[in-house]
Specification:
Elements lengths: L1 E7 L8 H6 L4 E8 L3 E2 L3 H10 L3 E7 L6 H12 L5 E6 L11 H15 L4 E5 L3 H5 L5 H4 L3 E4 L20 E8 L8 E6 L3 H8 L3
Parallel strand pairs: 1-2, 2-4, 4-5, 5-6, 6-7, 7-8
Antiparallel strand pairs: 1-9, 2-3, 8-9
Helix pairs in contact: 3-4
Length: 206
């Protein structure tokens, strides 16, 4: 298990990515879009600076219920313009400031991004919304996607993952109160279920 991935947004200001890399972080997943018309104001600068610092680069979309999932997926693609080294992620969690993305819209987002990139995106979520929405169904669309589980616990492993969908997890966001040299304030930290070599290999081919 490797504690070497963070996710950030405009709330994290302007990190010193060289110091972040020196602190042992290998991968950064940056908020890119939300809904169908909002772009994170720090995304464009990070898209250049993060890879330049030698870090793996990823982008995530915060799903909402304001528009069809396919439209949100296309908005994400138009904004991010992912290449073969970009990890694409859908953030499926409760929306505190608006309408909630329903499960069928999540599928639409996944299918749109997968068709454009040729690979399934990473799905972020957990006990607060994703797992209850899944219930006991198998959901092949989700099963094809690696899981990034959000679960803040002192346990050795996350729990409650629907076994009929995922046999294991890929990333585990275990805290939203982490610290990293080069970033002011708290930062979300995640563990990778594997080695550094496996992280690099799976990053663009999940």
């Amino acid at each position: 298990m490797l504690d070497a991935v963070i996710d950030v947004s405009h709330f994290n200001g302007s990190p010193d990515w060289t110091r972040v890399r020196a602190a042992g972080i290998l991968g950064v997943i940056h908020k890119a879009t939300q809904g169908s018309n909002w772009v994170d104001p720090t995304f464009a600068a990070a898209r250049t600076a993060v890879p330049a610092a030698g870090l793996l680069w990823g982008a995530y979309h915060f799903g909402t219920g304001d528009e069809e999932g396919s439209a949100q997926g296309q908005f994400f693609l138009d904004t991010v313009q992912p290449d073969a080294q970009t990890l694409c992620v859908i953030d499926f969690e409760p929306n505190p400031s608006g309408t909630q993305m329903p499960l069928d819209h999540l599928f639409g987002w996944i299918e749109t991004v997968q068709k454009a990139t040729g690979r399934p995106p990473l799905v972020y979520g957990g006990n607060s919304l994703l797992f209850p929405q899944i219930g006991t169904a198998t959901h092949p669309t989700l099963a094809a996607c690696p899981l990034w589980v959000a679960q803040y616990t002192s346990a050795a492993q996350p729990s409650g993952i629907p076994p009929q969908v995922w046999k294991t997890w890929t990333l585990w966001q275990y805290t939203e109160s982490g610290t990293i040299d080069g970033i002011t304030g708290n930062v979300d930290r995640s563990r990778f279920n594997g080695t550094a070599e496996e992280l690099t290999a799976k990053w663009s081919s999940p």
